[in-house]
Design goal:
Elements (H helix, E strand, L loop, with lengths): L7 E5 L16 E5 L5 H8 L3 E4 L9 H10 L8 E3 L4 H9 L4 E2 L5 H12 L3
Parallel strand pairs: 1-2, 1-3, 3-4, 4-5
Helix pairs in contact: 2-3
């Protein structure tokens, strides 16, 4: 975790890329991507402390597929990934693919502190 700016969170979500203000009051630096088709290279470039992964992004890969790809890369096998779909059934698919934690997208601002303690301080 970066001591001066807080955690770096890479967000893969086509809705939040257009509504970044949804997370604006939370500590840390958020980097947004509209899709996870380039998840491995995006994570390698950004070097996040945590990844937020939506399921449906109107792209080639689903959030579950991108999570599987990330978990297959040795450097990212322990990277905290939080499933953030609005649909809990889709969050479950991301968790089954290797996500660390799951939270409904609308609960993100309220549960952010708990998420950070759970996934980053482990």
């Amino acid at each position: 975790m970066n001591a001066t700016t807080g955690p770096v969170i890479l967000v893969f979500d086509d809705d939040l890329v257009n509504h970044q203000d949804f997370l604006a009051d939370l500590p840390g630096r958020f980097v947004f991507r509209a899709h996870a088709d380039d998840a491995v290279s995006d994570v390698a470039e950004v070097k996040p402390d945590c990844v937020f992964m939506d399921f449906s992004m109107n792209a080639r890969l689903s959030g579950a597929q991108a999570t599987e790809l990330l978990r297959a890369v040795h450097d990212f096998d322990a990277l905290p990934i939080v499933a953030i779909s609005s649909d809990t059934r889709l969050n479950r698919k991301i968790v089954m693919a290797g996500a660390t934690y799951s939270v409904a997208k609308m609960a993100l601002p309220d549960h952010f502190g708990h998420i950070l303690r759970y996934v980053i301080t482990k």
